[in-house]
Amino acid sequence: MAGLGKRRPSRARSGVSGLQGRRTTRAHDAATTRSVEDGLIIERLAHDGRGLAHSADGKSQFVDGALPGERVETATHLTRQRYDEAHVRRVIEASPDRVAPPCVHYALCGGCDLQHLAIEAQRAHKLAVLPEMLARQGVELTQAPTLIATDDPHYRRRARLGVKVDAEGRVHLGFRARRSQRLVDIGDCTILVPTLNALLGPLHGHVATLDAPRQLGHLEMLESDQGVVLVLRQLKEHAADTRRWQAFAETHGLHLVRWLGRDTPALDWLTPRLELTYRLPGPGPGPGPGQGTETRDELTLGFAPGDFLQANAAVNRRMIETAMAWLGDIEGRSWLDLFAGVGNFSLALAAGGASVTAVEGNPAMVERLADNACVNGLEVSARQADLTTAGTIEALLSEHAPQAVLLDPPRAGAERVCQALVEHPVARILYVACDPATLSRDAARLVHGGYRIVRAAVADMFVHTSHLESMLLLEHPRRQWQPQGARPDG
Fold it and tell me: Is the separation of the CB atoms in 478 and 425 below 8 Å?
C-alpha cells in the first residue's frame, strides 16, 4: 500500500473547507438552491456534521440537524459576513438516512449532534472527512482510509456533569445545551456505559439533598477495572456534605475522589485510596521478546483522576491493535513516543520489542508512565519535556536518533514536531490525531517534506457525534527500516 498518500500539485480551492461529497457551485440553480419560502436544499455535510446550503443570494448556510438532499425550513441563529449559522425548523423533504434520535434529550443536549443520521451514514461521512481535508492541503489519498469501530452504542466510560443552582434554588445536573452554557438535566444518557448511566438518577436526587450545592463545580464519572470512580470538583470544604458523599459512595459501591479548592485544587480520596487501572491489548499472541513462553495479549495501564483517558475503551483497543498490525515486526527498532500520556501506545511498542523513549509534558503523568512500564515488566525510558518548543524537539531527536516516531498530540496538533521531523527525517511516523484539521495541516508539512502516507484509518471513537480520531502511517524513502544497532543510512 505504499504510495497511498502522495504529494500532488496545489490547486485552486473552492467551496467551504472540510466538506464531503461532490462539490457544487454557488450558482442560483433551482436544482441546488431554493428560496427561503420554498426551503433550503442541503447540498452536503460540512466536516463538523452540519448541513451546507446556499441561500438565494448565494450566501453559505450551515444548518444544524440537516442532511444531504433534504429540503428544510430553517431559522438563522447567527449571521456572519460570509455565512450564516442556522438550525432546522421543519423538515419538508427528509433524507432516507434520517432516523429517530435514540436519546430523549437530543433536541436540547449539545453532546450528540448526529443522532438524527443513521450509523452507517455517520461513518461514511467520517470516512470522507479525512481525505477531503488532506486534499485541501494538497495531499491525496489514493485509497480510502479503513474504519475502526465497534457495534456497542453504550461506549462512553467517562463523563463530566455540570452542576448549577438556578435563581429559584433548583439544582440542575447534566450536560451543556446546544449553542449555550445552560445545563440540560440528564436523567438517562444512551451513550454511557451501563454502570455510569445507572448513576444519573441517584446523583440527581443526592445533589438536591446537599446543604451547599453551589460549592460543587462539577462531577466526573469514570469506569476503571476496579469499578466506578466518582470525582467531585468542590470549591470549598463543607463537612456535612462530605459525609453525605461518603455515605452515597458506600451505598452505591463507588470509589470517591475530590479536587478541593478554587485556584489550585488539591486531590484527595474520600474513600480508601487505590491504584486505578484499565486493560490494553499487547502486541498480539505469542511470546514477547525476553518473555520466554509468556504471551502479551494484555497490558495493564495505571492512571489517576485528571489523567487523559480515552472515552471509548473498545475503540482505543482497536486503534492500538491496528497500529501494531501496521507496524509488523518492531523488535530492535528505536521509537520516540511523543505526547505519550501514561503509556497508551508506549507499552504496546515496548511489549513488541521496540526500544522506546516516551516523552510527556505533565510531570505526574511521566511518573505514572514509568510505573506502568515497571508493573508490566517492560523497559521504557520516560522523559518530561515541553514539546511545543522547537529547540527541545530537535534536542530529543539528536540525542535519541530514533528510527521511528509516534505522535499522539492534543487538538492543537504537532506543528513544531513535524517541522523538526522534516529537517531530521526518520524512517517511520505513526500519527494519531483527535482533530482531522490539524492532522491534515501537519501531514501536509510531512508529505511536502519528503514523507509518503502508506496507511490511513478513521476511528469512530465518539458514535453519534461529528468528532473523529484518525491515524496515519508515514514513511520516508531515504530512511531504511532496520533493527536497532544496524548502521544508519545517510
Answer: yes
**Tens of pLDDT, residues 42-74:** 999 999 999 999 998 999 999 999 999 999 999
How far is the C-alpha of 329 from the C-alpha of 333, rounded, in Å?
Answer: 9
Q: What is the pLDDT of residues 2-31, one digit of tens each?
A: 444 444 344 333 333 333 433 333 333 333
- Whether the pLDDT of residue 487 is over 90: the answer is no
CB 256 within 8 A of CB 204: no
Quickly list DSSP for 300-317. EEEE-TTS---SBHHHHH
Rg of the chain over Cα atoms, rounded to whole angstroms, equals 25
| Structural domains in the chain, sorted by start | 5-147 (2.40.50.140), 158-224+227-269 (2.40.50.1070), 276-475 (3.40.50.150)
Contacts of 342 (CB under 8 A, 6+ apart): 301, 302, 303, 307, 308, 360, 365, 368, 369, 372
Is residue 434 annotated as a catalytic residue, yes or no? yes
Q: Under DSSP, is residue 259 helix (H, G, I), strand (E, B) or coil? A: strand
- Stretch 334-345: mean pLDDT: 96
Q: Tell me which H or E stretch contains 428.
A: strand 428-433
Q: Please tell me what DSSP assigns to residue 264.
A: S
Q: Using an 8 Å Cβ cutoff, are 378 and 351 in contact?
A: yes
**442 annotated as a binding-site residue:** no
Q: Report the chain's mean pLDDT, rounded to a whole number.
A: 88
Contacts (Cβ under 8 Å, ≥6 apart) of 295:
282, 285, 286, 287, 288
Ramachandran sector of residue 283 (left: φ over 0; alpha: ψ -120 to 50; beta: rest): alpha
249, 272 Cβ separation under 8 angstroms: no
Say whether 360 counts as a known binding-site residue.
Answer: yes
φ and ψ at residue 249, rounded to 5 degrees = -65, -40
308 is in an annotated binding site: no
339 is in an annotated binding site: yes
pLDDT band at 285 (very low <50, low <70, confident <90, very high): very low
According to the model, what pLDDT value does residue 294 have?
A: 46
Task: Retrieve residue 345's grid coordinates.
Answer: 501506545
- In angstroms, what CA-CA distances link 81 with 60, 61, 167, 327, 479? 10, 11, 37, 47, 48
